[in-house]
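Reviewer 2 asked us to include a model.

Predict the structure of this chain.
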Amino acid sequence: MYDCLIVGGGIAGLQAAIQLGRYNHNVMVLDAGDGRSAICQSYHNILGYPDGVSGPYLREIGRKQAAQYGIEFVIGKAENAEKMENGFEVQAESGDTYKTKTLLLATGVIDRIPPFPELMPTLGISVYICPDCDGHEVKDKSTIVMGSGNPGANMALTLNYFTDKLTYVNHENKEVDEKILAAMKDKGIKYVKGPIEKVLADGPDFSGVELANGEELTSERGFIAFGGNEVKSQLAQQLGVDLHKNKHVLVDPRTKMTNVENVWAAGDVAAHSEQTTIAMGDGMQASIWIHKTLLANKG
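Predicted model (structure tokens):
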């Protein structure tokens, strides 16, 4: 029986694990290893890393730091969670089950990224997903937005704040509202109907796309905006946790606890701005209240 089981070994989960380890709690992190931080090659807006820092690096040093405090890590995907008399039981895809007094869901969000192998090494370096995180990186640079329908068009409009050298490629040829098309035209954003045949990149350096008709479009930077990202709140749903209409988990803003007693949520799966630094703060805040709860229950 663990004091706390953390599902998700990204930024929120690792920060919580480190703090709970410093409280001398018996904690396990169950991590599928497929979160956003596992693929982002560089974050640029984190205090202390003026030249950027990669998600895989943060995860690696985070695991080492947590391990110093006796935190246990299991690589695997959590499939089922249920309330038991004295806590919770979580079953992994492997069939292994784990019992815990408290549960922290740090399961995150999976972005809908088109399956072009050339994209992966570019993510966070020359191709981006979040305009709040990385809009600054395309400042005054020619940029191609690879997207679908309205989400891609709206991304292009958002990025117009940073650069006027924009092309939106509607890869899936989904319909774009007339009002949004007019706004793009007014801003001088070039609109191209896809599909994209190939992403042009040399390792981490994105240089454009080749369309199915053979035309090549070149640019210095890229952005991805397909919409339909998956919020990993299935375990929360199984436990009866209240969700926002967009499937993000609703939490108490002070404690990060959900409506289900002894179940917390932190990071991108919770309903707030999806930012690395906020995920870190969420994990810390949740861990403090998990500690308080464990102490109270012990007494």
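Helices lie at 11-22, 55-67, 131-134, 149-159, 178-187, 234-238, 276-298. The chain has a mean pLDDT of 97. We have added this to the supplementary material.
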